[in-house]
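Changelog note: in this version the structure field was regenerated for every chain. One regenerated record is shown below for reference.
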Amino acid sequence: MIIGIKQISSGEDEQHHEYDYAGVLYPEGNISNDKQILFDQEDLDCIFFRGCDDEDRKDFINALTILEDKIGKRNPGPVEDTEQPDD
């Protein structure tokens, strides 16, 4: 489950890297920082459910995109709708 965007790794033995998303296991949720998973857009295979995707979030993503265009950084953009896998 995605819980954040634009996350920067902070591991001691890892160079700081900006990831598109932070996620946690579902349904457990955010039980501790060491259980969070950092990943990029290209790591997503499918989306099972879209939760809080309201106008405020869309406005935030658009403002972030404009800001990053100005300073020359990439952003995750909208999460593409993908088909759910067959069970």
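Spot check on this record: Strands lie at 2-8, 18-23, 37-39. The helical segments are 55-71.
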